[in-house]
Design a protein that fits this description.
single chain; alpha+beta; SH3 type barrels; 5-stranded antiparallel β-sheet; 164 residues
């Protein structure tokens, strides 16, 4: 991208959303922006991190010519992009992500059908059946840890503890 294109594009993105901007360089390296510090004539100065790294708060001085493209790291509605370019009064009727999000919000807001209790498992069913997958995985891990500790405690008591 040219310097003018980068400057124009970054100025269109609201400052509050700069932390969701990724720069992809010509060598396919990904840089995540935390805060843009300066837009110099030849390079961009920002604090951020490299993609795939947990090292946050690093300083970057990136020449505009090295930027291949800019990406917003979130789902973006069409109306948001149009507002960035000055269009107003846009309705997201054609926005697939927006329509799906609205439909799923409506489904979550609707009351459950009467007569079926989804919170308590049926008799004889596992108590984990009503929990989310993360809670089930956590409970399974805790059960395995407890079993391993019980197994170790049971065997250490038997070592050298035979009849003699």
């Amino acid at each position: 991208m040219r310097r003018e294109d980068c400057l124009e594009l970054l100025n269109r993105i609201p400052v509050a959303e700069h932390a969701q901007v990724n720069l992809i360089l010509h060598n396919r390296m990904l840089l995540t922006i935390d805060v843009i510090i300066r837009m110099e004539p030849a390079y961009l100065v920002f604090r951020g991190r490299e993609g795939g790294s947990t090292d946050e708060g690093r300083g970057f001085f990136v020449p505009y010519e090295e930027i291949s493209y800019v990406r917003l790291e979130r789902v973006v509605k069409i109306s948001e992009i149009r507002r960035m370019f000055g269009e107003t009064g846009v309705v997201d009727e054609e926005d697939v992500f927006g329509v799906n999000a609205v439909a799923s919000d409506k489904l979550r807001a609707e009351p459950k059908s009467a007569g079926v209790d989804t919170q308590t498992p049926p008799p004889g069913a596992s108590p984990l059946a009503s929990q989310d997958p993360a809670a089930i995985a956590k409970q399974n891990l805790l059960d395995r840890i407890r079993a391993a500790r019980a197994n170790v405690a049971g065997t250490t008591g038997k070592i050298g503890g035979g009849k003699g």
